[in-house]
Amino acid sequence: MKQLLKREPVQRAASWLIALYIRVVFRLTRWTRVNDGEFQAHGSSGTPLIVCFWHGRMLMMPNYWPHAMRLYLLGSPHRDGQLILRTLRRFGVHSISGSSSRHGARALRQMARVIAEGSSVCIAPDGPRGPRMRVQEGIIALARLSGAPIFPLAYSVEKGRILGSWDRFLLAWPFNKGVFIAGEPLRVARDADESAIAAARLELEARLNAITAEADRRCSRRPVEPASLPSAVEQTA
CA 71 to CA 19: how far, in whole Å? Predict the structure, then answer.
């Protein structure tokens, strides 16, 4: 299967089927939107911003952000990353070549350039491989460099399945009820020092985890727990 998914025609067909599934599930779900007025207004205005959500909650996001947004996603050369990019292109999302885990500085400059040119970027700050629901510093560095606000987003549904993958991916079923929640935007000062950057990372992580847990509670779903960290890392944080 892994070899098969590397083939161009197979990836193209798979991305079409996934995009179709997302559209069908979205249309057959009754959605409630919580606290998203500022996000929708900001996104519709064309002002650049940084959209973020956990890797496990990306499935329904392409239908949530305003269609007027010109949005870019950093693409991973990995097979799964390419499939995600192909799928999101079908929703008008553009790709930036590179990887946050390899050549991180170059990827950061590319995303900052996209924002400077007037577009927005979306990031799963625990991707591409975790740890689950833990913010990596790249998104904070991008916010500091670009001056763009970070908008944390989350969704949940009443009917669906949490997969056993590292990110505990939520697969939503059709004929459903669901909720989208937007958190308060986070801004990082351009002159932020190491202490302020560390505090911003923890604050973004807390906001993302809070709205994700709230979305799950509103859908009568047991919240997914973040990956545990070694005690030394927790003490350092």
Answer: 17
Query: What is this structure's pTM?
Result: 0.90
Which residue range is the domain that position 128 belongs to? 7-221
H/E element, 124: none
Q: Is 199 left (phi over 0), alpha (psi -120 to 50) or beta?
A: alpha
Alpha-carbon gap, residue 72 to 89, rounded angstroms: 10
Q: What angle do CA 175, 73, 119 make, to 5 degrees?
A: 110
- Here the CATH number for the domain that contains residue 110 is 3.40.1130.10
pLDDT in tens, 100-141: 555 578 888 899 999 999 999 999 999 888 899 999 999 999
Sheet holding 120-123, edge to edge: 29-34, 176-182, 150-157, 50-52, 120-123, 71-75, 94-97
